[in-house]
Specification:
The structure holds 2 protein chains of 2 kinds.
Chain A (H helix, E strand, L loop, with lengths): L1 H16 L1 H34 L8 H25 L1 H9 L2 H5 L5 H33 L4 H26 L5 H17 L10 H9 L5 H5 L5 H28 L1
Helix pairs in contact in A: 1-6, 2-3, 2-6, 3-6, 3-7, 3-8, 6-7, 6-11, 7-8, 7-11
Chain B lengths: L1 E9 L4 E10 L4 E5 L6 H8 L7 E6 L2 E2 L4 H7 E4 L11 H11 L4 H14 L15 H13 L5 E5 L7 H14 L4 E6 L2 H7 L2 E6 L2 E7 H9 L3 E8 L6 H9 L4 E10 L2 E8 L6 H10 L2 E8 L4 H8 L11 H9 L1
Parallel strand pairs in B: 3-8, 3-9, 6-7, 7-8
Antiparallel strand pairs in B: 1-2, 1-4, 4-5, 9-10, 11-13, 11-14, 12-13
Helix pairs in contact in B: 3-4
Classes of the chains: A mainly alpha, B alpha/beta.
Chain lengths: ~260, ~325
Amino acid sequence: MRNIWVIAQKEVNSYFVSPIAYLLLTMFAVIFGFFFWNSVGYFNAASLQSQMGGQAMPMSVNEYVIRPLLSNISVVGLFFIPMITMRLFAEEKRMGTIELLATSPIRDIEVIIGKWLSAVILYAVMMLFSAINFAFLFRYGNPDWKPLAIGYLGLLLQAGGLLAIGTFISTLTRNQIIAGAATFGVCLLLWVLEWVSGYETATWAKVLAYMSVITHFDSFSKGVLDTKDAIFYLSMIFLGLFLTSRSLESLRWRS
Amino acid sequence: MITVQGLTKRYARTLAVDHISFEVKKGQIVGFLGPNGAGKTTTMRILTCFLPPSEGSANVAGFDVLEQPMEVKKRIGYLPETPPVYQEMEVQEYLTFVGKLKGMSGQSLANRVTEVAGRCAVADVRTKLIGKLSKGYRQRVGLAQAIIHNPEVLILDEPTAGLDPKQINETRDLIRSLAGDHTIILSTHILPEVEQTCEQVLIINKGKLVATDSVHNLQARARGAESVVLEVEGRNGSLDAQTIQHRLETVNGVSRVLLKDFRDNRSVFEVESLKDRFIRGDLARAIVESGWNLNELRPSAMSLEEIFLQLTGGEKIEEPLPAEAVVQGESQ
């Protein structure tokens, strides 16, 4: 446990002493700020219109602002995840520092979880920047906080799964760019798999759609904690970390 | 402290280490000598539990590298060929991180970091980024990292590579000062380094151990027969080198006389004896009685370099032979 924290701390530090964390946070803050501004503007226009129509229907901020924004984050996150994980092991392999970790009295799994945890922490910090925007909704409106909390939990679980896959891919190469590009490809594929369900209802299409990370986020964005979806993400985390540990092990026998 | 038996490492196509066996006693400095690609690094990686052996066993500080790697790792300090440093860390931060990896913490770790930084002469760059340091400093940070947890066994892969001569001397002094408390294996392809630093040498070539002995014995064994360098000067002007050579060849027990240098009135010879014959006295008498001056007479100690070339099959031997066979082949 202590070793995991030693590694995680070191990784978080190296994110924040290099430009990468600031670049990611700035990009995310700008992109999400734009989404938020857009979404609130649309909501305002819509509610104004409905008032002008004379039939002032109650419009839910949760339904019209928070939910679509959470779905946006879940998709935008796919683009950020490769940039977070690409260096985790590729850099250690390139610099030879993997030899230090491998010859220290610390288990592979502790290194892996520590590194993955640092990636989750960076992602969570990114989420904080979106939370700043949401805070305005609470200041000027009266949304329900529970669906938002569940939405964030879903985002962290989804990111956890993808970050675990990215961590695995990072062990396969000593080149960060290759690790990043491959992770991006996998993330993208895991997103679009869901499209087949649009025109096909056969079992294979259902299986493909089930594997898409985005479908499982629907329930979370509605504020529903569905164990089925949570388990999907948890098993993805487990699979990713397991593959990482296998990959590190095989590295020793091969190299 | 270190026992290696029948250690073998096979990669997909190549045999990197081929049934090596040796033993290192506590507190010794052992030089691991061999040309590039001989299997030094692979052997060290097996000893540090970085790579598993294909066959054979290695026991470090009483623990088997395959069965109890955690116990082994606690007791070794390892400096790989390229120091495993993080460019974006400060020296002190890095040493603290490594200390934590090795299971240290708190005030004792902080004290140890200061102590080790002083000992490895990196105290003046404690707050600098490692990425901004020169190669020499980085190498010493790597060394500091290896000794941070005061390990019983130190494994150093080419610790002086890339340093300038002054730094090389300092590093050697540092390594020598660590012996006693620590058992040290260091690999190198620089021969004088072994002669100066190590008590014992393991010579490895193409994955095979070709010799293992103390530096002193190795020189003696490879020499076998006595070899003497002579400088002779004629007393009255001209002197024919051929005459001297013929005279020397008639001395009892001499197997070969080589004219090494001839200038003005002086000639330098290298004389080899038959095995187990002592010829220095007879040589001196022969020269003086012939009326020449004997300016110099010294045994020519075979440098480790020559031994190394012999053992690793530079010109004379194609396949590495056991040291015993080499010695005989040379003296006959």
